[in-house]
Write a structure and sequence with these properties.
Two copies of one chain form a homodimer. Chain A is an alpha/beta fold. Chain A has eleven helices and 15 strands. In chain A, 30% of the residues lie in helices and 25% in strands.
Chain lengths: 329, 329
């Protein structure tokens, strides 16, 4: 029987359990994967804590991103064959379809092939990060090469994806990080400039880097009181994309800056893109083109074994990583 | 010597003084108006109180909107003749160029003719209200006839302009007002539905009116904790335009609703439109077309004489009016 990760109550990383469960069969519109690698996401930590957009029903599976091989196909599916090498695009209930484990069933629309040139570990580190950043920067943000983009929490997989996408357009990528320890790694990852927020005034430095113009697009998963600092670093007409809620504090809306600069603050998740067939097709093509040309290249922070799933979650919570944490199966 | 309204300190309506001052001559790029009517705006009350985007330098003039006759032209101006019947588009410093008084000097770009069919009182009630609503609903909001628009503080001149513009596109206009007393007047002014916020649950009623879809565009000058209620009344992908700061309280950003519905909250003022020549041309054409066809028609709440400028400000602060308060000169 395959090993499956489930949890029976919300809480810290120790609520995750590895259980042996009967192999399930895919139903109408579903396919089954033999999972080879699992990409971890902050969303799963919030789901495990009971602080996510979706609330778990116990016992609950968990997990959005896996790479593996199709080993069973349900009725009413087409375009995918047994033996195909695919990874999953987060576009399903993370509790009902969670992919942490040796076997996972997902809706057919959520699987996509990934380039032969990528390892299976890299295959599990594509869709969440690139589709999330694509949706904000390209689909909605209409990023132009003259633009300056401020990317916060930049060492996360989505942050690094945003740096790569910004540079692929030829725009300026300014990354933020809290301490000095990750500064060089962010420059190495392609950021034009790095602002160390514990030591530097973010707004003043962003203005200096742009001849007083400020950021055109700001891409942030933190929210909380940090939004007011983002508004000060923003230029006239700037768009601030809030794609997460990492701050435990309430988020004051920066009304005065918004009125005087004409700022837009937009709540955003990749689910808007994956629910929109046109946008999803555009995002997949953008990602395939970028992976093919090498402008997009997943950064793997560290791998763990399935038996170490708790340690893998705890490592993500430690915020030491630069890039994607992947669990091999 | 012409009578001019100035103030020498911030404060309540009694700081406004009527002073006789020497007639000024227009400089390069400026024209002078013999003022016949003055349209009052909430922005001027906030400026008088020292709570506006612009801070007064004393003694300060005040006022954005006047209708009158051109009686002097500075060098470097073209397209406007002495004797032209014009009104002013707010696109200048309200302190330096303020139009309250018998004579006003404004930049040439800020004057526009208005239709012969309108009285001079109506001429002073065009540009602030229609350009403000046009910019949010049409220029940025791309309002479509399938959309539902929630218009708060709907009895204000800008609110009524938004109702008229919404109806001119064929979209649904839902107006809010605090008490029952203005409900019928808002229906008479063209609102499809009125929500009385002191008695009704705004989000529940908005959802009921739209088969559970929610508002597509929300147009609000209040902000403060009211923004969280707006977010609950908003549909997926809705855009909330905040064009004022009437609430004295801080404005919490509705992060959870913004993430789950993909909401946009945009700070907005008409100054974005008037500073953009293309958008200004489009807005003027839209307003001329609407005034010509009768889909747009200024609503005048009450007129005062110039000597009653303090009473006129106090009347605006009483929130009894439905439509524009105009001072005749």
């Amino acid at each position: 029987m395959p090993k499956i990760v489930r949890f029976h109550e919300t809480g810290n990383a120790y609520v995750l359990r590895i259980e042996e469960l009967p192999l399930s069969e895919p139903k109408e519109g579903e396919v089954r994967l033999k999972v080879e690698a699992i990409g971890l996401n902050r969303a799963e930590i919030m789901f495990r804590q009971g602080m996510y957009l979706e609330t778990p029903e116990f016992p609950s599976r968990i997990g959005y991103e896996a790479a593996g091989t199709v080993d069973a196909i349900g009725p009413g599916t087409s375009g995918i064959q047994i033996g195909d090498r695919v990874s999953t695009i987060p576009s399903f209930s993370v509790g009902r379809y969670g992919v942490y484990g040796e076997s996972a069933i997902v809706p057919i629309h959520a699987v996509a092939r990934y380039p032969e040139t990528l390892s299976v570990v890299e295959g599990a580190a594509i869709w969440m990060q690139y589709v999330t950043a694509f949706g904000a920067l390209i689909e909605y943000g209409r990023l132009k090469k003259e633009d300056a983009v401020l990317i916060t929490a930049a060492s996360s997989s989505v942050g690094l994806a945003a740096i790569q996408i910004t540079k692929s357009i030829g725009a300026m990528a300014v990354a933020t990080t809290r301490g000095m320890d990750k500064k060089q790694a962010l420059l190495d990852a392609g950021a034009d400039h790095v602002i160390v927020t514990d030591k530097e005034d973010m707004a003043a430095k962003m203005m200096a880097l742009t001849d007083g113009k400020g950021a055109d697009i700001l891409f942030d998963p933190v929210a909380g009181p940090f939004l007011e600092k983002l508004a000060r670093a923003a230029g006239a007409g700037a768009r601030i994309f809030e794609y997460g809620a990492l701050s435990p504090s309430p988020t004051p809306f920066p009304l005065f800056d918004a009125l005087s600069k004409g700022l837009t603050v937009r709540g955003y998740t990749l689910f808007e893109i994956v629910a929109n067939p046109g946008a999803l097709t555009r995002s997949k093509q953008f990602v395939y083109d970028g992976l093919g040309s090498g402008t997009l290249k997943p950064v793997i922070a560290r791998t763990f074994k399935l038996e170490e799933i708790t340690e893998a979650h705890r490592y993500m919570e430690s915020n030491q990583q630069i890039g994607k944490i992947v669990v091999t199966v």
